[in-house]
Amino acid sequence: MNTISRDHVQAGVAGGFTRNVEFAVCVEAPIGPLIEELSFIKDKRRWGYVFRFGLFEIACRDFELIKAAMRAAI
């Protein structure tokens, strides 16, 4: 996803805000090949554990690895 505008736009009657964005073309990618490279997965044998706690921040390098994998499958 690429941000088109940094300006916030009010959306809906609830008063929430959003930004105009352009979504990148991508597909699902298997996690298996990425497990060893992703820094947020501390225990590589129990890689799913980190995902049990909802949202969490990842490093830019991890984001780029995931993005590349999702675009390579196209």
Order of SSEs? EEEEH
Broad shape:
extended
Strand residue percentage: 5-15%
Poorly predicted runs? none
Which secondary-structure class do the elements indicate?
alpha+beta
Q: How many domains is the backbone divided into?
A: 1
Number of helices: 1
**Major beta sheet summary:** 2 strands, antiparallel
State Rg.
16 Å
Overall pLDDT metric: 87
In whole angstroms, how far apart are the ends? 16 Å
Specify the helix fraction band.
10-25%
Helices and strands, with pairings:
Layout: E1 2-3, E2 9-11, E3 16-18, E4 21-22, H1 60-72
Describe the structure.
The mean pLDDT is about 85. The radius of gyration is 16 Å and the shape is extended. The protein has about 70 residues and is α+β, with helices and mostly antiparallel strands. A two-stranded antiparallel ribbon has the order 1-4. The chain has 1 helix and 4 strands. Helix content is about 20%, strand content about 15%. The protein has one domain. The protein has one helix spanning about 60-70; strands at about 1-5, 10, 15-20, 20. The longest helix is centred in the last third of the chain and has 13 residues, at about 60-70.
Keywords:
single chain; 74 residues; alpha+beta; two-stranded antiparallel ribbon; extended
In a few lines, what is going on in this structure?
18% of the residues lie in helices and 14% in strands. It contains one helix and four strands.
